[in-house]
Design brief:
GO terms for molecular function: glutathione peroxidase activity; glutathione transferase activity. The chain is built from seven helices and five strands, in the order E-E-H-E-E-E-H-H-H-H-H-H. By secondary structure, it is of the alpha+beta class. It is globular.
Length: 228
C-alpha cells in the first residue's frame, strides 16, 4: 500500500470509492495529508486490512491525531468544521440547499446507484437465462425509475441555482463534495438520465486543479467523465 506522507491527516483510500471525495476536499483546502491506498480484492471488495483501521472495514476512513472517523458525510463535515470554515463559504440563502443535498447524497440517492451495480453484476454473472431476465427486470422496474426521478430533481436544482454549485455560492461546499462522486457514477451507469446541467456540473468540477491533484495522488479512478 503506497503512501504519500505530507501531513497529520491520513486518508485510508480505497481505489474507485467514495474516498475520492475526501481527496478533492483536502486539495481544495490545501491541507497537508497522507494517503494510505488499498486495492480491491478480485471480487471488487475492500481488503481485510481496512478492518485494522475501522471495525466495518470500509473506506473512506481518516485518522487525524487521536480521531478515527468513517462515513463520507461525517468526514466532510469534520474537515470543513475544523479546517475549512474560512474557505468553504455557504451563502445564507443556500444554507438549506447545502444541508439537504449533503444528507441527500447518501441518504436517498446513492442507494439506487448501488442497487444498479449489484443487479447488473448479478445479471451478468447469472448462469440461468431466467435468473438473468429477473435481475434485468428488477433494474427496469425498480431501479431505473428511481434514478430517473432523482436525476430530474438534480437537473432542475442545478438549472435554478444562482451559481454552478449546489448551495449557489462562489465555491463548492459540503453538498458538492458529497454529491460529485454520486453524479460521476450516474453518468457512468445511467447516462440516459443525465441532462445537460448534470453533465456540465461534472465536467466543471473534474476540471478544477484541486480535483485533478486529488485524482493524481489517489491513483487510477474509473468514474471520470472521460471514462463514461
Amino acid at each position: 500500500m503506497p503512501s504519500t506522507n505530507t501531513g497529520s491527516i491520513v486518508v485510508h483510500h480505497l481505489a474507485d470509492s467514495r474516498s475520492q471525495r475526501i481527496l478533492w476536499l483536502l486539495e481544495e483546502l490545501e491541507l497537508p495529508y497522507e494517503i494510505k491506498r488499498y486495492e480491491r480484492t478480485p471480487e471488487g471488495r475492500a481488503p481485510k486490512e481496512l478492518f485494522h483501521v475501522h471495525p466495518l472495514g470500509k473506506s473512506p476512513v481518516i485518522t487525524d491525531g487521536e480521531v478515527t472517523l468513517a462515513e463520507s458525510g461525517a468526514i466532510v463535515q469534520y474537515i470543513i468544521t475544523k479546517y475549512g470554515q474560512d474557505k468553504v463559504k455557504v451563502p445564507e440563502a443556500g444554507y438549506i440547499d447545502d444541508l439537504y443535498y449533503s444528507h441527500y447524497a447518501e441518504g436517498s440517492f446513492q442507494e439506487h446507484l448501488v442497487r444498479k451495480r449489484i443487479f447488473n453484476s448479478l445479471a451478468v454473472n447469472a448462469k440461468d437465462e431466467k435468473d438473468k431476465e429477473t435481475f434485468q427486470n428488477l433494474i427496469k422496474t425498480l431501479v431505473d425509475p428511481e434514478l430517473e426521478t432523482h436525476a430530474k430533481l438534480i437537473e432542475a436544482h442545478l438549472a435554478n441555482s444562482p451559481s454552478e454549485w449546489f448551495a449557489g455560492g462562489p465555491t463548492p461546499t459540503s453538498a458538492d463534495y458529497l454529491l460529485g462522486f454520486s453524479l460521476e457514477i450516474l453518468v457512468n451507469r445511467a447516462p440516459q438520465y443525465v441532462g445537460p446541467k448534470i453533465q456540465a456540473y461534472v465536467r466543471n468540477f473534474e476540471a478544477r486543479p484541486a480535483y485533478k491533484r486529488g485524482i493524481e495522488k489517489g491513483g487510477e479512478y474509473a468514474y471520470l467523465l472521460s471514462s463514461a
